[in-house]
Amino acid sequence: MMYSLKKYRKSFYLLFILSLSFFSFVHAAEEKTKKNEKKETPVIQGKQIDKIVALVNDSPMLKSELEENKKQLEIELTRSGQTEELDEPIAFEKKVLNQMIEDQLLEKEINRLGLEASDRAVEEVISEIMKQNNLPSKQALENALIQDGTTMEKFYENYKTRLSRNNFLEKMIRPRVKVDENEVKNAYKKRTQSNDQQFIYNISMIFKPSSSKNKKLLSSLQKKMEKKEQNFSELAKKHSEGPGKEEGGLLGDLRIENLENSLAQGVSQLEKGQISQVIENEKGLFLIQLNDKKIAQFDDYEKLKPAIEQELFNLGLVEQLNQYVQTLKQKSHIETFL
Fold it and tell me: Cα(172)–Cα(227) distance, rounded to whole angstroms?
């Protein structure tokens, strides 16, 4: 259930761009000079209360909120194998706080513009999620969310925020982005004339939801296949809970950019016929077999043009969104106390 719910979440158009995650893009603007002095943590009846780590237009952000956000991002980064950010804890903490500040400014702006998603719109999304996951009632959804480590209240608020930001994207950011024909042609030329060889990977996959039991199972299967004791296709048909199960886990030909980072990294290290170690990310557990690897042949310009236009448009959305948020920051009174 965890796999299908999270898979569906990624289907919303550019909702993750709108999350303003600092892992999605790099902020160009320098942070304002911060005050050196730090506020003392208030004490009431001998007990230390929550520390203020930032003020945004006189609205306080608390240490407990920062720690909660840090913890969640640490989990997501660890699951996806992108732990480089965690090697510098002080810088990581500052980036998380900066992200919280930007999120709050954007939320206030959305409310000011009257672009907050309606309860009806959120309910429609939740109903569609229930339908996609064969959940007959709200109680069944709530039970699935508990297994997924969250609550119905958090789930609802999460989607209300995402839909509100999507409204903002469509109304305020999308009209600012234009893709020029020359940009598309230059991008095509750069892609097709690159000195770096690009490959097509033919892969098969065994997927299981994350659990210690499933991790042990996949480790056991991997060792058996390494010793040629069992066949990948047969084991995929028997054990996989992911796409291509009936075809022995076969996913067919894919470019590396079509895979999530953790899977792409695993696949790129394999030789033809090899099977990966167990790969774990936010969706679950994977074993990957590389069936074949060949140099990619590029389609002509007209065939690739729509995909390149979409890529450039998405990059433009990120750039314009970043600029909008930086303008909000410049107009605001922001103090941080880390």
Answer: 57
Q: Can you read off the two tokens belonging to residue 180?
A: 């020029």
With 0.70 as the threshold, say if the pTM is over it: no
CATH code for position 64:
1.10.4030.10
CATH classification at residue 287: 3.10.50.40
14-28 confidence digits (pLDDT tens): 333 334 333 333 233
Note whether residue 301 is domain-resident: no
152 and 250 fall within a common domain = no
- Strand stretches in 20-138, DSSP E: 43-44, 47-48, 52-56, 59-62
Query: How many CA atoms are closer than 13 Å to the CA of 74, on its beta-carbon side?
Result: 12
Q: Locate tokens 């690159």: which residue?
A: 194
- For 122, 149, 212, 284, the CA distances from 275, given in Å and listed in that order, are 42, 31, 20, 17
288 and 266 Cβ atoms separated by less than 8 Å: yes
Q: What is the pLDDT at residue 60?
A: 95
Range of the domain at 58: 2-176+315-336
Which residue in the block uniquely carries the two structure tokens 């550019």? 14
